[in-house]
Structure formats: C-alpha cells, structure tokens
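Moderator note: this is an archived Q&A kept for reference. The question asked for a predicted structure of one protein chain; the sequence and the answer are reproduced below.
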Amino acid sequence: MKKYYGEETRKALDNFHMTNTPVDLRLIKAVAIVKLAAIKANVKTGKIKRELGRPIIKAAKEVIDGKLDTQFPTDQIQGGAGTSINMNVNEVITSRANEILGSSSIHYLDHVNSSQSTNDVIPTAIRIVILEELGKYLISLNKLSITFAKKEKEFCNIVKVGRTHLQDAVPITLGREFGAYKNLIKRDIKRLEEIKKYLLITNLGGTAIGTSENASKDYITAIHEYLEMETGYKFTPSHDLVDATQNIDPLIHASYLIQLSSVGISKICSDLRLLASGPRAGLAEILLPSYQKGSSIMPGKTNPVILEAFNQVTYQVIGNTQVATQVILAGELELNTMLPVFSKTIIESLTFLTNGINSVNDTVSTIKANSEKIQSNLDTSLVLSTQLSKFIGYDRA
C-alpha cells in the first residue's frame, strides 16, 4: 500500500505511541475541511496560483470523503498541540496533489499549510467536530424528550407514592415524575444549543499566536466564508485572535455542559432502576423491558442493563471532563498545548452519549406502569396523612 505521508509523520510514529490508537478520523476530516477552505482562500487572494490550487482542492476532498483513511496513523495523544496531526494531513494532501498534478511542484508547508499554523487549524477543526457530534447528540436528546412527554401523558392519571429521602412523602402522579424528566432534558437541549454560538467563533487566521503572521485580512475573511460553505456553520473570526488562541474556554464550557447533561440523565436512569426494583421485593412501580438473562445462577432474573450501561457512560464522561479541566489549566502564555487529549475526550464523550441516549430512549419507550403494585403501595402508605393534616392538624394526623 502506498504511503502518502512523509518524514514528519514518520517522526511522529517514532515519538508517540502512548495509546496505540490513531487520531479519530472525524478530526482528520475536519482538519482537511480547514485545509480546503484555506487553499480556496489563498487562491482567491492571489497568494497561490490557481493551477496549484486545483489539485490541492481535489486531494483535500479525497481526504474528506474517506478515500485516504489509511494514511493517518499518528497516535491520538501526542505532544506539540497537534502539530503532528497538522503535518500528517499536510503531507498526505501534498503527495496526493502532486500525484494528480504529475509533478512535485506543491510543497506541504509553502502551499498546503499557507497562511496557517497548527495553532489555528487544530482548534478550528475541533470546533467543527464538536458541532457535528453535538448535532447528533441533540437529535437523540430531542427524541428522548418526546418519549418522556408521551409517557407523561400516558401516566397522567396514575396516582402513586411520592418519595423524599427514599421515604414515603406525598402523593404524585407517575405522569408528573416523567414530565419532570422531560423538562430536565429540554433545559439540557437549550443550554447545549446556546453554546453553539461560542463554538462558531474561531482563531482561524491568527496563525501561530493570534497576531496573523503570514495571513492577510482578506484571507481571514475569505477562509471563514469558504468554511461556512463547506460545513454549513456560520463561522466568524474572533475580534481578538490572540485571546482566542491563548484561551479555549468555549471548548471547555462545551465539555462541562455535556457532562451536566449526562449527569442529569444518569440520575433519571437511576430513578428508573429504583422504580423498577424487585420485581417482588422492591418498589416495582414500573416494568422495564427484558433484554437478556440477568444471572448465570438465578433463574428468571433480569437486570436493567441499558440503564446501568448509561450510568457507566456518565462515569466516563465525568472523567473526560476532569481531563478537560486539566487541559485548560495547562494553557501557558500564548497557547494551550494539550488539545490532542482534549479532542480525544470530547469526541469520546459525545459518541458514547449519543449511542447511550438512543438505547435509553428505546428502553423508556417500552416502560409500562405496574398499576396494581402502585395502588398497593399507595393503599398501605401513610402519605394521605398530609392531606388529612389540613383538616385535623399535624399531631392528630
């Protein structure tokens, strides 16, 4: 198999073998989108000749389309703020572009990396990936919100024991409980939608440290226009490119909001596990679908496996967000160098959550109310004493 990458990629392969897992191809393709927008902007502003631009554009599109996926072997955790990722993409696009052109006229830095730096390419590519994966997650959240709304309506007349401190409290309907779950998810959706506007502000064109060394104002305008054409997202340059290069707080903010969403839904999963506990010696107020045998020794036992799995996804997301916190602490002066591990963790979190939410939605959609058990729990509880206390007083009740 032909290798399109060059010496800088080979050096990275020698230097970085931390995880033995390559950089996520979603990030690679996002970098290639930035390269595509950059070459178009450089051709438009006259910095690169059109005859050199055409094969570079074609090669970048091949990367985006997945035709060169085997050419990106660098480890997902690496030093250099993602320089090896940037170099790898530069080299592959250059080799393929020269192959198309039939010469060696195209240089991986002078042409493919023109008007750019790792320090504005990689943060922008990470934004593209987050927006793409966040979009998928929001679709899943919307579906789950709708499912809870349907259950809210289905269970609206089922009165049950409400509990605080895991003790009987006052009556509530099962529908109100599920309606509260719906509203929590809707708040998550709103918060995550709002963070998008900050992710759309880039440091692209700031090059190394935000001072726009080797990048013209016309180029900065053009590359954002082309980036919007390629992605559908209306990216704009920061009013302070030095600030946007130094500080990655919008990326970390997104990570925190993703964690917040995950934690809330994990709490819902734990509630559902508790409500389904039993089925004979527990609360057993709802019936969950049975997916698989729950024990190799206890006949007839089934477990809430999907809900348990999502709880574990949340533990991983919490860990990933802790990594993100350390990443922002590692920022020094004009650059945060720890973006490779941040990109790994946030892509992982969004992937796990989207898949997890889809599974949870399948479970919630099939939940049934155990009406007999709910009524039995209500009949044997003292929760109605609260209603009685309005008429005869607390002590007598």
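Archived answer notes: Residues 132 and 231 are 9 Å apart (CA to CA).
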